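dude i think i finally got it to work??
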Amino acid sequence: MIPANSNLHYVARYALDSANADGRPRTEYLNRAVVGWNDAGLPVVADHQGRLVPASSLAGFSHVDECDMGDVVAVLPGGGWVIHQTNTETGAYWEQPLVAWLVTRDGRVRAAHPDYEAVPSGVTPTAPLFKGDAPLGEYWLTHPEQSKVTYEEDSSVSQSPPEQSPEGVSEQRVHPCVPCQDCDKCSCEYMQGLCRGCADVRSAREHAAADIARWKKELNEGKTYAVGSGGARLHRWDCSTLSDPEKGLEALEDQVKAATDSGEPRHVFWSRLPALFTAEELRRKGSQKRLCGICGPDPL
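look at this
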């Protein structure tokens, strides 16, 4: 067996069919660390009894992903931080307190929050939140002691203390409002020249452009099999149940319009397009996904 590289981590993804307490079907996602590769070149993981077995031999195996996070070497308190999340498929919103910050061997920090079973689940503060290979959506972090930006006179103008009003209450000194470059609204509570809403829109459109370029590149390389957000089924790249650049951009602009019409800050995000693969790549991964019954991709 070839042991896993300590500087390069891989995980095996699993998607298991299950049901809620009310009987409604659901899919549970599980990750297992790849500890090495056997003589046949297949990834090896530890099963529930601690035995080393091929990753594809366990139920629900989907595929293997590279994981850029190192081992956890320290744990810091959550410190009152809260994670806000949105589901990319249903639009649902919820928030949870962070239970800890996980410091990894490579110096990165992960925010740990409870998952559905109240088990701490780590996420990378610089990337979209994933559970298994099912994106729960975009997220952001806040702290209850965060306060709005306060503005003082430029120190080059005056260092004198604030003047007192006749009633003895200090007058607040503010600088002139800086309008947002995109919408002309006040940007002073976020960053000068760009309000939070427009910053979200810019970020989402940048993510969209990069993701669409990735998707088109993969398609041009002959990758005609697609894996959706659930990861349980294999599709044709043009399956009607999957998102594509046109659908994704339309959904993004609908979010932008809704946020603009509401007149209130709303989080706008880009839903990642499905990953594309060639048949050979899927065979090498040992994929045992069920085929989509709608688009009917060719068997591997």
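The chain has three helices and 20 strands.
im so relieved honestly
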